[in-house]
Amino acid sequence: MSISKNFPILKTKINGHDLVYLDNASTCQKPQVMIEALSEFYTKHNANIHRSSNPLADIATKKYEDSRLAVAQFLNCQKNEIIFTRNTTESINLVAKTFAKTFLQAGDVVLLSLAEHHSNIVPWLQLKQEIGIELAYLPLDKNGYLDIVQAKIMLTDKVKFVSIQAASNVLGSIHDYREILKLAKVKNITTLLDAAQIVAHESLNVQELACDFLVFSAHKMFGPTGVGVLYGRKDLLQMMPAFLGGGEMINQVLTDTFTPNELPYKFEAGTPNIADVVAFKSSLDFIKNLTWEYIQKTEQELTDYLWQEMLKLDFVDIYGKNIANKHLPIISFNLKNAHAHDVAELLGEQAIIVRAGQHCTQILHESLGVPATVRASLTFYNTKKEIDLLIKNLRLIYNKFKV
Amino acid sequence: MDIYAQNIIDHYHAPHNCGRLSEPKLSSSQVNISCGDQIVVDMKIEDDKIKDLKFEADGCAISIAAMSLLSDYLLNKNKAEVLALKYQDILNILGVPVAERRYKCVLLGLLAVQNIILKAENNPERTWDDLL
Q: Which pTM does this prediction carry?
């Protein structure tokens, strides 16, 4: 059975054409098991969690905590090191606004990279405004990978925090992030890994990674929107002040003070996104059953074919390079005679869904010297036939715009 | 009807009134951050009327064609007429069915033009929402 059968939306037609979904780096589609788990929760188990002593709340709480356990097993960490947030963005903000704001001071340097998503730049710019930290940006090498040689030079004694992506959402490059984290750890620098783009493509084991924090979103790994994950080393999470204040995150509230709850609840103020967190477990199970071996083999074939066919088009400018085994099934490009938005619009008319713009990476686009790019991002349910359709339509668009 | 009608593509490849004006002139630039489009418009206004207009832009076919068509339309119009123009008027000038999500592409040129007039009279400048 074709794997795409598990994803009901892929049967959708737009303008009479079969949906060709090539925007998986934005958000990927959902397997039937996750959609059913979400529906089942609201149909049978809905109750607020961690509060009332009643059998319905007991089941809801158990299911919510089962998801936390599943995430902990997925990353190989302790259950109370997993905090549920809304998304990757909120997870990074949590670290910047609690840990970094408390333990960094004016003049300390936070090392980012030129390829970071705005989510991993703006919270640090806000902190710069608030407490006067400085930011440094690791450049990319000529192939679009984080420059390891530069990393060694830039990790000076002034650097107190490193926050980098594992893979580029634009270029598709899977960086040697393990090495950069190690280099930082040797110098006793606190590290955060933005795993948003990598998490659906390779296994992550925080015990083997020299990272103190790791963040990602459920919706980029076949889970629901509205669920983000923050992994934090337990001793650091304990040192950090609470983030948002309200229900669940407190232990005791007095008229003039409060004491925070224990981990991980200390960072989960208010009623969380219970149903989506519960449903997320079925996405993790889905990936587990599929196996990383299958996912990586399929995606490597797609990546190689996508790049091979795109490189044949002499009217296309491609950004970055595909270095085998170190690349996501992503390609960003421009047609020589048409603007990215016009290309995406015309592909969309044929039900080929891509993204055009700066993909939340204005700084990267400035270094590429282009105002916008078209991005096709694939995953294991895409096919070579779909890549052929993309290529065929790019030729048609090129001809339409030919002078 | 095709949003990329030949007329639109022709204006994209060879926009009317392209370039910069000599001094004295009124100018305004606009950017559409979400897609990276940018435009600079120069105008000369005499006796309350637009006597000359040129623009330089880097953008998609819709934003360039909209400004090109608008630039022809604006010559000899008075300031009040220009300030009364809205989103639907530009859609009518374009004459193709542009999806609402691309309203900034449609409005980029008009926003620059109206803000030239408003700025010259020391009035507050408009934003996208004001033109919808």
A: 0.94
